[in-house]
Structure formats: structure tokens, C-alpha cells
Amino acid sequence: MAEKTRFLSSVLGNEQVPAHLARSVIEERLRSAIVDGRLPPGTALRQQELAGLFGVSRMPVREALRQLEAQSLLKVVMHKGAVVAPLIDEDAVDTYGLRVLLETEALRQSIPHLDASDIALARSYIQQLENETRHAEIGRLNRLFHMTLYSKAHNHKLLRMIEIELNEEERFLRFHLSSMGLGKLTQDDHIALVDAASDKLVDQAIDVLERHLNTASRTIRNYLNSQAAR
Predict the structure, then answer these.
(1) Which of 26-35, 91-100, 126-135, 156-165 has the highest mean pLDDT?
(2) What is the largest CA-CA distance in the chain?
(3) Which CATH architecture has domain 2-84?
(4) For 130, phi and psi rounded to 5 degrees?
(5) Fewer CB within a 10 Å sphere, N or C end of the chain?
(6) Is 45 helix (H, G, I), strand (E, B) or coil?
(7) Distance of alpha carbon 227 from the chain centroid
(8) CATH: 3.40.50.300, 2.60.40.10, 1.20.120.530, 3.10.310.30. Which one for 90-228?
(9) pLDDT band for position 86 (cuts 50, 70, 90)
């Protein structure tokens, strides 16, 4: 038990968290550690241990774990409680299939209303992604890039659904980068996407987005098939 506590402390820190910020701070620290791989798949996260580590009650810890479970970063296992979910599984393929449906529609709605400031903001995220190697930050910037291009869609419920899927996708980034032998994302598709959006070429932008998402989906499917064949 002491060894497990020392491990969590080394990964998450052990400074006391203000009560009114406890849920959000604990959620973000756990999320970052899971996405970056510092908390590997299968790691058990017990409420009492985390509450003691951060000097809070179990309630904000429980809420933080619930949020992470909703993002598919954690799963509940009998006799172990909340554990870090596998980096990649069948849900990942479904996630990309759903993203194609949702995001192409959002892009179709949004592009006619994007202005120069939206395009400039999207390009700024590309520039930041070019220089970033931290997985959690790559995931955040990738999400902000995509949401900027979809931001002028008139269906706000659609945008909320997309943001949920993009939050979930962050856990796949380490898999993609390692499987392709990369330290960071290549930006060719992002550049082509924002160029088409800037020129109001809706169909061309949708083609780029579909290719971008389907390539990721095929990478995951090939990996899962290779694992099943072992």
C-alpha cells in the first residue's frame, strides 16, 4: 500500500488541493497522467488513496473518477474499482466512425460562416502543434484546432457531442504516435483542411477531414487485427 501511494505521489504530486477546486484539479491531473502514459493501463485508482493524497474528502475524488470514466479513460473492474482503461480497443474504431459522421456535418455548417480571425486561430494551433511533443498538450491543441473550424456550426448540440468525442480521442494519440514512430503529429492534413476552409471549399474540406479520420481508424483496425491474430 505504501509503495502504491509513493507511486501515485510521484506521478500526481501530493500537495493539498483547495476544496472548491478539488474535483477539477484531481480530474485534470489524472487525465494528463493517463494520456501521457504515466498512469499505465490497468492501474487501479482507489478513492481513499487519492483522497488522502490530495487531502480532500472522497466526494470530489468520486466525481473526478466518474468524469474520467465517462471519457472512457477509466473503467470499473470488479474487486479493483476504477482502473485506467486500455490505450486502444474496439471502441476506438467506433469513435472514429462516429467522428466522421458528426464532424463532416459540423464542418459543412461552419465553413460558410468562418471569418479571418477563425482561420488565423486555427493556423496558430497548427503552429503550436508543430513544436509540441507532450501528449496531453498535443491532444488539447488538436481538439482546439478542430473545434475552431466547427465553431460556427448552428447546431450547438452537435458541437457538444463532437467535443466529447475529441476529449476521448486524446487517449489514442500516444498509440498513433508510437505506432507510426513519430514524436509528434504531422500537420499536412490540418494544413490542407484549414486551407480549404479559408477558401470556402466545403466539399474539398470534407474530403480532407474524411481522409484524415479514416486513416486513423485504419491504423487502429490494423493494430487490433494483428493483436487478435497472435
Answers:
(1) 156-165
(2) 59
(3) Orthogonal Bundle (1.10)
(4) -60, -30
(5) C
(6) strand
(7) 23
(8) 1.20.120.530
(9) confident
In the chain, where the domains are located: 2-84, 90-228
The amino acid at residue 157 is K
CA 7, 67, 217, 224: dihedral to nearest 10 degrees?
50
Q: Please answer whether residues 71 and 167 qualify as being in contact, where contact means their C-beta atoms are separated by less than 8 angstroms.
A: yes
Average pLDDT over residues 146-150: 98
Q: For residue 16, which amino acid is it?
A: Q
pLDDT band with cut points at 50, 70 and 90 for residue 111:
very high
The DSSP code sequence of 150-176 is HTT-S-HHHHHHHHHHHHHHGGGHHHH
Half-sphere exposure of 13 (CA within 13 A, CB side): 10
